[in-house]
Amino acid sequence: MKKLCIFDFDGTMFDSISDVARCFNETFDELGYERLDLEYYRKSLGGNVDEIIGIILKDNNNAENVELVKKTYEKIYNNDPKENTHLFAGIHELLENLQDDGFVLAINSNRKTASIRKFIDLFAGDIDFIDIQGHEYSHPSKPDAYGVNAILEKSGISREDTVYIGDSATDVATSRNAGIDCIIVTWGYGMEDVYADEYPIAVVDNPSDILKIVKKE
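Given the sequence above, the corresponding structure tokens read:
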């Protein structure tokens, strides 16, 4: 049985793509760049934001322009009501059951930590997470294992007793880099190649399946 469950945020716990895509496109409109369609964001969400921005900037891809896009996006996103961002069906019940059964819970995401905490307070304030490792510019983002390693150090739980739960190729790579098991969910933004990857110990279609798996492992 596992002891520590580390969750990805976007596409695993929260359905957030509509608000993220809209705010990015408003950013690109304001700065005079082309919009991206929803399918592109679906494939890219969870990865490094610099890569998304780089695709748009093309020949103008430099540190100064990337920072301008980031600051503009943060302003737009922070002021947006984000009415379409919510927990996927069955996730709160899963978190409750894991907590009741004594599992230690944590979050590791490329979303900023303050943003993660805001949504957790709003939708899952009754769930106790031992640590939330979001992306901060002072340390590497996923798929680097920095966040997972920080969680492991704080929890004191071994890698063998830990599982990472995500939806994307970035999450598989993060798990592999950290040397921990991985469960991939199909309700998020992952593509078929992620589901076919041999590294995850399971690919699940329902949140309730996760509880069964972590109890057995």
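Residues 63-79 form the longest helix (17 residues). Try to locate this feature in the token string yourself.
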